[in-house]
Fold this sequence. Notes:
By secondary structure, this protein is of the alpha+beta class. Helices cover 39% and strands 25% of the residues. The protein has a single domain, classed as Chemotaxis protein chec (3-Layer(aba) Sandwich). β3 (30-34) and β4 (40-43) form a beta hairpin. It is globular and about 40 Å long.
Amino acid sequence: MFxxxxxxxxxxxxxxILPSRFRAQLESGLFITRGLDGCLWVMPPEEWNRLSxxxxxxxxxxxxxxxxxxxxxxxxxEDRPDKQGRISVPEPLRVHxxxxxxxxxxxxGANTRIEIWNTQKWELRRSEAxxxxxxxxxxxxx
Length: 142
């Protein structure tokens, strides 16, 4: 499980340091891809495989499933943290998440995955979510 919110930045080569508490779960490798809401998703292989399996069970005739599969898989990249805990963020993914080299980014735990956000976009998104939290939770029937 991935928890917490951390401020890091992309270096001049497009790499970002993962928080030390996340690294042990990703030593065997990871997948990074476009996420929803303009962020990036980073997943350990077992979570990536779970998502892949669920998508492979959808109907190829369903245009929503095809579009989501294209969105996720076409931008995906496989990586492994280096000795400093850095991973590479390919340029198309940086463009998707509006991440700039040598600028701040927010790396956060989101249960079974990590999300990487443009810090300004995350602060706005978090603020908007907080305003609607009570009604959103009521709708989820937790």
